[in-house]
Amino acid sequence: MMADGQFNEAQTSRILASVSYMDKLLIDVDQIMAASDSQALPKYMNPLTPGQVRTIKDYIKRLRSQMVHVLHDVGIALPPPRFDSTHSIRVFLQFIEVSIESLAPERLGGYGEPPERLLPLLTGGLQEMKGIVRQMDAYLVQQPEADLSARLSRISETASPARLLKEISAVIDRYGFVEFRAPLSRLAEKIENPVYEIAFFGRVSAGKSSLLNRIAGISLLPTGVTPVTAVPTRIRNRPEPGLLVSSAGGQLIRYDLDRLAEFVTEEGNPGNEKRLTRVIAELPLALLPNEVVLVDTPGLGSLALQGAAETLAYLPNCDLGVVLVDASSNLQTDDIAVLDALRVASASVLLVLSKADLVEEHELERLLDYTRAKVSEELGTTVSVKALSSRPEQSCLLKRWIDEDIVPRIANAKALARESSERKATVLARSLIHALEIVAKTATADHAVATDDDLKKAETRLRDSATLVEAASSECYRITLRIRERAETAIEMLADRAISHWQMDDSGMALDETWMQSALNFIAQQGADELVSLILPTAEKLSRALEEASRVTPGNRDDPVALTDLVREMPVPDASVCSLILRKPRLFAISKLLARRSVKTTVGSYCGAMIASFFNTYGRGLELWFQKVLNSMEKEFNASAEIYRAQMQRISSIEQMAPSLGKDLQQDISRLKEFL
Hints:
The chain is of the alpha/beta class.
């Protein structure tokens, strides 16, 4: 020892190294016992009884405690942890996913020709495992405030389904029903953070950002006559200004509010190249309550088709959609399409004529009446239409609009949200009760819930279906690539359509820019229809697989999953690209072939670059759209399929249970039923 009675640095290092090694050996002992109980590939035979296992774990705990005690007595401080456990676990999950990928059928060819009949089963099974790994990873990257236990503890007991959710959580933890954690977590988040999202839609320069700046009371959002907003931007009422930004990694990072333009503008984040998933601006909002979130969406129209794809993908998430139309212009195709999409998504809709200060007062009422009639004619429904202006001298219009159109809907939305939460909690409880009843029935071998053959067929179909989204995604990429490269073909089709038109119309009237726009939109829509014809059957096959699984595990859902409902809000082509007027060539009377060549050359010379840009932009917009749709479809399918798989595995694995466990099961079932 040193003179001061302490171990020197080398001695301390040696002692800590030995104690650390002993701790590692104890971890290995723990892992041996865990590996012995592995239901997948047990590494060790385990002659130990459950009582012996518990006793050994108690000894391990006692030995670790003594190690710490000895170090403390000799004056050696415990070293701090060196690694983030979350990061380390996520690294191992990535290795697991790499191992799963290495088992793909195409990787097995070097070991001999694999049996064809087993490949779908292997591919589907690997896809299922990959889905579980990704669910684990998503659970690990969520913020601490998103932890389910912490979230449930924060929910007030006065919240209608709060006690039921806590009982559901306890049962899930007790029996390891992890497949129910995701729907429970989503429901708890909705109850803990009830929000009413009011989203503002409109064409580029319709005045969305200016109006929101007026509501916020400060110049918060960037404005301009060209596309400015790149991603949907949420604004919520909080006492302290700030900016929360989330990327594909899932982490929310806080910034100063004055950095907003770096993330939400086309200049700072062109085409959302930073891959942001959420941008939230927080600041005091005197006009609106805390639970209301305002959303500024990217502008619609051909100038901003990439941003429009982000807008259309977000659209189903809003509770109230406010569609802005410049009062100095007319209703456009995009405006009607958004109104219709909001109606289909069961969101409330308001139509606002922005920049009302640009219209003479005596003309404004006539314009409002015309707009109401036009919307009613196009959609067959009545929509509230009001005129607003972001100018300070007309703030009375804004205040009256909020009081008359926004506040009543907020109050009604709260009641609807409560009813929705209660209904979803009840459905979840019924599914959990059914899972418990399956465990009780199969474990006591009272009677079969479904035949083994039915279970095998349903499970195989789920497994086969798990690969459908990936296959559809690959084909969708090929379709959108063809659309993006379709300019040359489109010019040839325009020439053919023009010649056919003049053959049927002897007058030889010139074809104006409206004709060309309509023709280009039709050609672009053909490609979009090809996408839908691929995605819809995929959604139908996935839905049928879930329905079959539901039949052999009855009671899981009140309503079947309709994945086809997710195939909506496709970007609408708007080929406002060329003002060329096509005139009938003089060569038409001599040779239709030469006339066609002349038209093709004319269109290519005057409009070729613009047409190429239009198809490239529209193809990219469709690419973003189908990615959103297929991701949502895969997420919904996996969430439901995981519950069904777990249920079917419980039905298949008939094991005798201890009498005490059977009693506990019945008590848990009874407690849950008391809430229904």
